[in-house]
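Write out the 3D structure for:
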Amino acid sequence: MRILFAGTPEFAATHLKGLLAHAQTNDNKIVGVITQPDKPGKRGKQAIPSEVKKVAQAAGIPCEQPNKLQFTDIEAYQADLLIVVAYGQILRSDVLNGPRFGCINVHGSLLPRWRGAAPIQRAIEAGDTQTGINVIQMDKGLDTGDVLYSKAMPIGASTTAKTLSDALAPLGVEGLLSVISQIEQNTLQPLPQTDTDAVYAHKIKKEEAQLDWTKTNHEISAKIRAFYPDPICFSQLGEHRIKFHAVNSPEQTPDDKGTDKTRLTPGTVIEVTKNGVLVACGTGCISINKLQIPIGKGSILSGADIINARSDIIFPGVVFS
């Protein structure tokens, strides 16, 4: 089978690597790769290729980078199947209908929950305890196609978008290999989706990353984890934009030594210990154990680092806004 692969970030690159490893042991061949155009480099530096492009170049596979993919961009490859993983474009009908077996997509949720651009982040942000991988037959709708493969996995209390993405990727590779085998054996059993329980995972905007400390400690913890490593949650502290890289689970928040949190303004620092910065929320409190202050090299600091070097900036009584 002649296969084209379309994808862009590290999540997609992991799938491409898995497919390439498998292709060495059978008659399937990745004949070409499609990815987004290189990102402009900062301050005139060299343009930055996608993670998928890096894998394709290392493997010597032709790579297409159209601004808007059309069937004419891929027609010459005579592909039997187009595999799409976090590509970043909505495909035209001529592309969807071009390959002999159409296009299949790996999606990081259990559809129809979290259709759309950011299923991994939105599941964590919403406090979901379960997610998974679906491989679907793509149609003209947004993640509305028939489900060809499904596998669930739990979301833990300390799970971040990064750790969940890393955990889901091997399941996606497993799903792709299963679906490819079923296509070859003509044993696919597509399962139509229903729209009744559909929830949309809208693209994340950078301004969403600013924390609202009036929310509960569980909501704030979930958001910090969901937005790591991109775009990373932040708050203002005077003239400084403080970024929050890691948070202890609310259930593991250290005792606040009798402070009446109900009388504290949300965002108030209660105490700083070697384990983290304890901050009052609308309900309860959370302990931030890794944060970044835009001073000097902007290193990521622990509670112990703040006590030793930045206690003039973050100390009990200051308020994040």
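The radius of gyration is 23 Å.
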